[in-house]
Design goal:
Largest sheet: none
Order of helices and strands: HHHH
Number of domains: 1
Helix content: 40-55%
Shape: flat
Radius of gyration: 17 Å
Strand content: under 5%
């Protein structure tokens, strides 16, 4: 992964950006990519999930989590929807909290 080398275009200057990029890479490696030796994804081989994920699945889950957090924050603060700015979601926390489909 070229994220670790400083002289590449993908170099992360902030630790948060680096952590997000590494988390996405690990997710894609384990859930999205079919491996030649396993003939399936490592997550399916380990029994963590029962289907091959796509990037669209990841984006849909991400958006639903953002909407859930927005509704929770708006409900707590008493603000209307026009005054509210969505909170920052940490990629690592989000990817670690993915439900396991067995």
């Amino acid at each position: 992964m070229r994220r670790y080398t400083r002289l590449s275009n993908g170099f992360s200057r902030k630790v948060e950006n680096h952590a997000a990029a590494v988390a996405l890479n690990y997710f894609a490696y384990n859930f999205i990519q079919i491996h030649r030796t396993l003939r399936t994804s490592p997550a399916m081989a380990a029994g963590v999930t029962d289907h091959l994920w796509s990037v669209a699945d990841l984006v849909a889950m991400w958006e639903s989590e953002e909407r859930r957090l927005e509704r929770a924050e708006v409900g707590k603060s008493g603000l209307n929807d026009l005054d509210y700015r969505p909170p920052h979601i940490d990629w690592i926390d989000f990817l670690c909290a993915l439900p396991c489909r067995a």
